[in-house]
Amino acid sequence: MAGEREAPLIWLIAGEPSGDLIGARLISALRQRTGGNVRISGIGGEAMAEEGVDSLFPISDIAVMGLVEIIPRIPTIKRRMRETISCIEAERPDIVVSIDAPGFCYDIWKGLRGSDIPLVHYVAPTVWAWRPDRAKKFAAELDHLMALLPFEPPYFEKEGLETTFVGHPVLEGGAGRGDGKAFRNSHGIAADQKIIGVLPGSRRGEIRKLIPVFREASARVLENDPETVFVFPTVSYLKDAIREATTNWPGRTVVVATVNDKYNAFAAANAAMAASGTVSLELAMARVPHVIAYRMNRLTVTLVKILHGVHQKYANLLNILLDREVVPEFIQENCRPDLIATGVSDLLGAGEAHDRQVAAIEEALDMLRPENGTPSGTAADVVLSVLGARKRQGELNS
């Protein structure tokens, strides 16, 4: 029992499903590097629960996107912030590692001022795209930042925040190791039938906006190929909502809600239409040619442009890395069924558009790899390094 008491307590905060997966892999890497001599507490979802984390509350309480969309949820989010700060202060962890969700996490850092608990954040905010002032704000609160993209550290280092490029976690997520043949067999889909993945997002607000657009785009695709099957990889807490949304879908639909089924669906897919976000990188890992679409509340977009400005010409990370549009983007007024249907249809089969995108994907993925090892392993090394430095400082001061 003495060894367990002496093991460092690491408090993790994941505010959305993508952060939950990052957190789970980080926990695994930390245990590998410490021989299991580490304790974990915090906030997470299904993936972190599988690693033994009893979340303080469901991450669905705080996984909200958009200035307008967040307004009705503010009381709940504020209450969860207070609960998080109180719990951390009571448990006195050796380090707090927050993952993405900067809006929620920033208030946690402020609430922990003066606690002398090291604060590390995993996933740098996109200051290169909008609100560059956040780099200075992060530097004022954090001890270390872990960045997913190779060009991000200088933005924060110039503000005095030590920042490490750890690589992108999508590289070790298994998205490229699915079994497409098994998926087709289990769902009775013939080898010559086209499969289109439909991924309208992981937030209910995203889904409400994109489902009608994707539905009509699917109807247009079916005009050329009536045997096309539309597969919806989602997460368990959204499965019922997606099933309901697809009851009047044109053509056959298949809804799956486990990570393994999602990756198998990717391997089986001929093309995909997806909400802008991390899922595009997962599709890239599976070498699935795809288009992205996004439609935010008009007031949200207007407020963002007025208050913060937008400095990025692309929304998709692959396009940003390569500085050219290799993944077609249908954003806001271009988020139209006719354009999306044409974009997806162009990618079906082995034509020029398909081959060009797959080749570009390889180029972009190489840019996301850390120098050595895996992203989660590199991140674990950073966390343990910060812990070690704080321990040595404490010994010097004692």
Give a structural overview.
With 398 residues, the protein is an alpha/beta fold. It has two domains: 2-167 and 370-397, 3-Layer(aba) Sandwich (Rossmann fold), CATH 3.40.50.2000; 180-367, 3-Layer(aba) Sandwich (Rossmann fold), CATH 3.40.50.2000. 48% of the residues lie in helices and 14% in strands. The chain has helices at 2-6, 17-34, 46-50, 67-70, 74-91, 102-111, 134-141, 153-157, 180-186, 204-224, 239-245, 259-268, 279-285, 298-307, 317-322, 337-347, 352-367, 375-397; strands spanning 9-14, 39-43, 95-99, 119-122, 144-147, 163-165, 195-199, 229-233, 252-256, 271-275, 290-294, 329-331. The strands form two sheets. It has a six-stranded parallel beta sheet with strand order 2-1-3-4-5-6, sandwiched between helices. It has a six-stranded parallel beta sheet with strand order 9-8-7-10-11-12, with helices on both faces. Helix 10 (204-224) packs across helix 16.
Describe this structure in a few short sentences:
With 398 residues, this protein is an alpha/beta fold.
| CA(first)-CA(last) distance | 26 Å
Question: How many domain units?
Answer: 2
Order of helical and strand elements: HEHEHHHEHEHEHEHEHEHEHEHEHHEHHH
Q: Which percent range fits the helix content?
A: 40-55%
- What would you call the shape? elongated
Rg, alpha carbons: 22 Å
CATH architecture term of the largest domain: 3-Layer(aba) Sandwich
Number of strands: 12
CATH class of the largest domain: Alpha Beta
Number of helices: 18
Please give the largest β-sheet. 6 strands, parallel
β-sheet strand percentage: 5-15%
Overall mean pLDDT stands at: 90
Poorly predicted ranges: none
- Biggest β-sheet: strands ordered side by side in the sheet: 2-1-3-4-5-6
The CATH superfamily of the largest domain appears as Glycogen Phosphorylase B
- SS class: alpha/beta
